[in-house]
Design goal:
Number of strands: 0
Structural class: mainly alpha
Radius of gyration: 15 Å
Number of domains: 1
Shape: elongated
CATH superfamily: 23S rRNA-intervening sequence
Distance between the termini: 26 Å
Helix content: over 70%
CATH topology: de novo design (two linked rop proteins)
CATH class: Mainly Alpha
Length: 105
Amino acid sequence: MVLAKAVYHLTARFPNEEKLGLISQMRRAAISVPSNLAEGQARRTRGEFVQFISHTEGSAAELDTQLMLSVELGYCTKSEATDADGLIQELRKMLNSLRRAVSNS
């Protein structure tokens, strides 16, 4: 949820015309990360949990792309995006470890 909060704070300064565009997309992707993990963990099978880990990885990749675009469009600086990008990279490592642990259990 730290990533979702960081994205909300970052996008709060984006132009108003992006409310229905990039802001909305980034916030949905950021919210999908913890939501997909929670839903996957609540499922009854290991296979479904692994599938939801994949959904989470997809949301993280989507958010990473949107973050890069935000910098290129000048909606935030590379420095401002660095914190969120670091969280995404850390998340990806944790998801890889989680996938291995769940798959091998």
